[in-house]
Specification:
Elements lengths: L5 H29 L2 H4 L2 H24 L6 H6 L6 H7 L4 H21 L6 H25 L24 H30 L4 H32 L10 H26 L3 H23 L13 H29 L10 H31 L9 H22 L9 H27 L4 H25 L5 H7 L2 H26 L1 E7 L4 E4 L2 E12 L3 E12 L5 E4 L2 E5 L5 E4 L1 E3 L4 E10 L5 E9 L2 H18 L7 H29 L1
Antiparallel strand pairs: 1-10, 2-3, 3-4, 4-5, 4-6, 6-7, 8-9, 9-10
Helix pairs in contact: 1-3, 1-7, 3-6, 6-7, 6-8, 7-8, 7-12, 8-9, 8-11, 9-10, 9-19, 10-11, 10-13, 11-12, 13-14, 14-16, 15-16, 16-18, 18-19
């Protein structure tokens, strides 16, 4: 009986979570406005309770999938009895309803974490943060219950078996990519809540930025990993060998990453120098708003994409209204409160302040460039003004020069001092790095391929220009220490996080430029006994076999690969699969990964005479794309671990201790006076 009631339990858990979110949205804000501690205290228990009940709802939906409860419409439409259990587990978020539930679950998790790890903050600040988080949670829970109920029943017309999960999603990529991406999206809600709370309380100071920075860095790290995992998944799953297609939904994930990167830098300036306050707040609002916009694009039905989950205008309208309300109210609060809390801090145009400002401007311009290319065709189509397609030529033409210019200022900013710096000192520090970057960047393509390529040289010069000045900066910071290791240990984790983040950008740039210009691809016809040579590797088809998987049939090609005449050989096994429940064919590529190259083979169509169309590719340095992203994310996490973000508790307790000492001293003095009298 209990098993049959699992969907209803999940549904009622969502309703209870909504009620708790409503209390969380109202009581703490009212308490902060009226200075009532009891009302402010509602924030934490409501956030924890909301997380618990959404977790119950999520567990109920997962149980419905694992138990093959096809009376639940969501399970019947996205699962099958033959589906392996690990794909049933990930199929929970491989659809619109489940993905929104996962989003809300993570949103409640971030809110719960914020309530538990902000105990050292002022009580009214915590209350306002909890109130804003509660409002966001109310919006998404209403969206689930009104338009996207994952527990809707198919009774009495329950199917015997499910329609199966989309074969594109039956992959490990579904297990890791959406959760990481959502953790990034939703994480920025905490930063957004901090920004609005700071505006409402009139507290845009260094302490506020020190509270907000760890949450920003952590959300940014999750989003970076999520985007990288999506690129990696598309690379090996779709069979094209591409790693970025400028798909509208890909662009939608890039937009908050760009503004989030600007926000990370802006928070650093606000904490260090007390400037860029308006920048910081606007970037926090923009980043979360762009995260919501990505949700709208995926679920509104306004575009056709491999990433799109839903095609329901009602759902799209609801999210659009949520986005409009969020943007309007937050900008209204900013317009009313920002002039009271902002103040000007002077700096020279040759300073770290100025260079970070320029970098932020470039990041905003890149955001606007991608936003226009993504949204403008949709706006024209919705207004009936025609259909246009904006593809890679537009994005590459505008994005690449902006990236190069930004790299120039990144190299300058790493060694420049705050407030002001003499041009002579800057040239003295950077001339050697500049010469080395130019010489190595120009010679490297000749040494690697024997032919010079302008774009590869430009990419290597840009990457080295980011890295070499930081090497000089590390040298300057450690040269006066007793030893190099001693000097390294004195540098903060936040500093090393910055270094790793910038090195990650450089590594990614090298990967992008090399694989884009030196990729080799051949489309060939192969049958048993056929040999094809690509980039010095011989690919010989030795056998064609068939095999039965858990829920598919596969034609498998066995390829023997050898480098040159005397190199070692290995086997690659690309497949062409036919999924039984849907009758949908899928390509399963064969990969031979390496740090400096990938070998990539995909089976095409059966040509009918015992031969197959095959796509064979040699992809140099493609792994550096994702290695760079991992370095960036690790840098963000490393910065979160910096000890200065754990000092707030001690600094808050210090006045209490001091006051106790003062009172003790005063009582001692009074006692002495009385005794003397």
């Amino acid at each position: 009986m209990f098993i049959k009631m699992i969907p209803e339990i999940g549904h009622f858990a969502l309703i209870i979570a909504l009620l708790m979110a409503a209390v969380q949205a109202v009581m703490p804000l009212a308490g902060a406005a009226t200075r009532r501690p009891l009302w402010m205290a509602y924030g934490q228990p409501m956030a924890v309770g909301q997380f618990v009940f959404i977790a119950i709802a999520y567990a109920c939906l997962t149980a419905s999938y694992m138990l093959d409860d096809f009376s639940v419409a969501n399970v019947a439409n996205n699962s099958n009895s033959l589906l392996p259990w690990y794909y049933k587990f990930s199929a929970v978020w491989g659809n619109h309803e489940g993905s929104v539930l996962l989003w809300s679950f993570m949103l409640a998790g971030w809110g719960c974490a914020a309530s538990l790890f902000t105990g050292n903050l002022p009580r009214d600040m915590v209350a306002r943060v909890m109130g804003v988080m509660g409002m966001v949670c109310v919006g998404f829970l209403l969206f689930i219950l009104m338009t996207s109920n994952p527990f809707e029943r198919l009774l009495p017309g329950m199917p015997q078996d499910g329609a199966d999960l989309n074969p594109l999603l039956q992959d490990f990529g579904l297990v890791v990519h959406p959760p990481m991406l959502y953790m990034g999206y939703v994480g920025f809600s905490v930063v957004f809540a901090f920004a609005i709370a700071a505006l409402m309380g009139g507290r845009l100071d260094a302490a506020w930025t020190r509270w907000a920075r760890p949450w920003t860095n952590l959300a940014w790290a999750f989003l970076t990993v999520g985007i990288a995992l999506g690129s990696w998944w598309a690379y090996y799953e779709l069979g094209w060998g591409g790693w970025w297609f400028w798909d509208p939904v890909e662009n939608a994930s890039l937009l908050p990453w760009l503004t989030g990167t600007a926000l990370v830098h802006s928070l650093a300036v606000t904490e260090k120098r007390g400037s860029f306050k308006s920048w910081t707040v606007l970037l926090a609002i923009s980043t979360f708003s762009l995260s919501l916009m990505g949700t709208f694009l995926v679920r509104s039905g306004v575009l056709t994409s491999v990433h799109a989950f839903a095609n329901d205008p009602a759902r799209g309208f609801f999210i659009l209204m949520l986005l409009a309300i969020t943007v309007t109210l937050s900008l209204l609060v900013f317009a009313l409160r920002a002039p009271r809390v902002s103040h000007k801090v002077g700096f020279n145009w040759l300073s770290r302040d100025a260079l970070l400002l320029v970098n932020n401007i470039f990041l905003v311009i890149m955001t606007v460039t991608v936003l226009l290319g993504t949204v403008y065709p949709l706006i024209l189509d919705s207004l009936g003004l025609g259909k246009i397609s904006v593809g890679p030529p537009y994005f590459n033409t505008l994005f690449v020069p902006l990236t190069v210019l930004m790299c120039i200022f990144m190299g300058l900013g790493s060694v420049t001092r705050w407030k002001s710096m003499a041009a002579r000192d800057l040239i003295r520090k950077l001339w050697l790095a500049g010469v080395a970057a130019l010489v190595i960047g120009i010679l490297m393509p000749l040494l690697y391929r024997g032919e010079w390529n302008l774009f590869v040289s430009l990419g290597i010069v840009s990457a080295l220009w980011i890295v070499l000045p930081m090497v000089r900066d590390v040298f300057d910071k450690t040269r006066h220490a007793s030893s190099f290791l001693a000097g390294v240990r004195k540098l903060s984790l936040a500093y090393w996080g910055m270094v790793l983040g910038h090195v990650g950008v450089a590594v990614t740039i090298v990967g992008v430029t090399v694989v884009s210009n030196y990729n080799i691809e051949r489309n060939v016809r192969m049958s048993p006994g056929t040999t094809v040579e690509v980039a010095g590797y011989q690919f010989t088809m030795t056998e064609l076999t068939e095999r039965r998987g858990a829920n598919f049939l596969a034609d498998t090609s066995i390829l023997q690969v050898q480098r040159g005449d005397s190199g070692s050989s290995f086997t690659m096994r690309p497949e062409k699969r036919l999924y039984l429940a849907t009758g949908m064919p899928m390509t399963q590529v064969a990969l031979r990964p390496g740090l400096f190259r990938d070998l990539y083979v995909a089976m095409g169509e059966n040509l009918g005479d015992g031969s197959w169309a095959m796509r064979v590719q040699y992809k140099p340095f493609v792994r550096w794309l994702w290695l760079g992203a991992l370095l960036m994310a690790f840098g963000g996490v490393l910065a979160v671990l910096d000890k200065r973000y754990r000092r707030t508790a001690s600094t808050r307790e210090a006045p209490k201790v001091a006051s106790q000492d003062d009172s003790t001293q005063n009582s001692t003095r009074n006692g002495a006076r009385e005794a003397t009298a």
